[in-house]
Amino acid sequence: MTQAIQINEFGGPEVMKAVDVTVGEPGPGEVRVRHHASGLNFVDVYHRTGLYPNSLPLVLGTEGAGVVEAVGDGVMHLQIGDRVAYAGGPPGAYSQVRVMPAKTVVQLPDGIDFETGAAMMLKGLTAQYLLKKTLPQGGLQSGDFVLFHAAAGGVGLIACQWARDLGLQLIGTAGSDDKCRLALEHGAAHAINYRQEDFVALVKQITGGMGVKVVYDSIGKDTFEGSLDVLRPLGLMVSYGNASGPVPPVDLGRLKDKGSLHITRPTLFTHLSTRESTQAMADDLFEMVTSGRIKIRIDQRYPLTDVVQAHRDLEARKTTGCSVLLP
Ligand SMILES: NC(=O)c1ccc[n+]([C@@H]2O[C@H](COP(=O)([O-])OP(=O)(O)OC[C@H]3O[C@@H](n4cnc5c(N)ncnc54)[C@H](OP(=O)(O)O)[C@@H]3O)[C@@H](O)[C@H]2O)c1
Prior knowledge:
The protein is an alpha/beta fold. Helix content is about 30%, strand content about 25%.
């Protein structure tokens, strides 16, 4: 038996309960991982509320780091005792021990501790595929402006640093002046407190009226319209999250009116569909972190059993950077 955080119904943070669950042996293609830390992500909120469908009962959690305890048939890249980390697979990371498909599990370099591994996989791989693989027509060149919402959050602070490394001028939005300062300290070229200022007007001002080639928008309902307004003709709208609620149905004709815009609604999990793509993206992220070009900032640590408070803080916009849950 092991402790896990499970929901038996969809709802608010209070539906999460600590339970004892039985963890068996890994089947073919699976491993059993003993967690040293698990990551907290906004996608866990969507799983908890039922916005993203799953069957019940459900152990939440999509990111973790720990040690391999058992290996199923056919798993060639991992051995008992390996230090590992992962993003994705089916939910289940809010637990002391779990069995999961091995294909999204990678070895954690010696220079990266477990808490950092648990904090950075889902958020760091997301920043990777956004800034390097989800690009406007013609790609991005050094000096280009990009708009990145929630720039002081988990994905956001990693994206600020990665964009700086790529030579991009990231315009970050954040919900307070302190959060804006944090985004600037981590590499944003400009920061806008979008709870107090009109981000559309300011982005136009910063870009000399030109607008940006790409917007990375994880806020959804509250920012979608404004994000379309700051795109240049032929620009790309990357709607990759819904922290304020899902984007209502879009009239495609508006993309024509605003200058032949492109739009995509991506998910990290498409990019992690094979072991090879997962490893290649993880190697890129590990290189950025071990070389010190990206620092993973863990601003909140909670015991696993305090997960209700962790979700309350995340949804109340009280967190910055990454948060981890400790078993
Ligand atoms: N599609 C993908 O592949 C993918 C992968 C990973 C993450 N995501 C998305 O990326 C976003 C960031 O994820 P994260 O885990 O790093 O979370 P996070 O950015 O640390 O937290 C979410 C942030 O969203 C902002 N926000 C704006 N309006 C909000 C509202 N009404 N309620 C709550 N928060 C609001 C808050 O920052 P401010 O106070 O600064 O506004 C809050 O801190 C999430 O939307 C997540 O779903 C998508």
